[in-house]
Every structure is written in C-alpha cells, then in structure tokens.
Amino acid sequence: QGQLVESGVGLVQPGGSLRLSCVASGFGSIGRFTMKWYRQNLAGDREEVATILSPGDETRYADPVKGRFSISKDSAKKTLYLDMNDLKPDDTAIYCCHLPPWSWGQGTQVTVSS
Distance between alpha carbon 65 and the CA centroid of its chain, in Å? Predict the structure, then answer.
C-alpha cells in the first residue's frame, strides 16, 4: 500500500517563501499519476490548491495562489513539490498532498505571520 509523507512545516513571515515536499512510496513511478496539493484552514475549509496532470505535467492552480505557487514533481526522487512565494497570512493552513483517488498525506502546518 502506498504512502505519502509531507515535509516543510514552517513559520514564515508575510512575503516569504517555503517549499513543501511530499515523498511517495509504494506507488512505483509517480510520473504516471496526477497529483494534487490541498489545504485546510483553521475554519475547516478545504481547498484544492494545485494540480499536476499526467500525462503531460500540465499544471493548474486555485485563483488565490496563481502566480505565487508552483507545483512540480521529480519522478526519480518520487517527490511532489509545492513552491510557495510571496506568502500571505491567508495562506496559513495544513497542506496535504493527494494522489487520487484514495491516497493522502498526513498534512504539514504552514503558518504565515509576522
């Protein structure tokens, strides 16, 4: 059974940057899969943040993060990334990686605060 493990928990000041990583094990090559990042804020609202499609690696982003976040994956390292720039307090949330339809990471906390 596959497993997703995120890393990159952090406290960042507004305007700062952070990279999240999600290591996938037990799935074989992640190059075959569409993968996603979700986030859930303190109010419990869940939002699909970014998607990288397979095949082709086309990327899609939620409007609040367009131009600031970038999703990518390294198949050799079996790792999904989320590069986050110009972070805002509203980006504060637990971020989870997702390999549809059933696999989820445990989540990692990102706090943006001065």
Answer: 12
Give the model's confidence band at 8: pLDDT under 50 very low, under 70 low, under 90 confident, else very high: confident
pLDDT score for 10: 81
Which amino acid type is present at position 40? Q
Phi, psi of 65 (to 5 degrees): -115, -5
Look at the block and give the residue holding tokens 């990334």.
Answer: 81
The single-letter code of the amino acid at 21 is S
Which tokens hold the place of 34? 């569409």
- How far is the CA of 62 from the CAs of 25, 39, 57, 76, 84, in angstroms? 27, 11, 16, 27, 13
> What Rg do the C-alpha atoms of the chain give, in angstroms?
13
What the block records as the tokens of 48 is 């699909």
Q: What digits encode the pLDDT tens for the residues 27-44?
A: 988 999 999 999 999 999
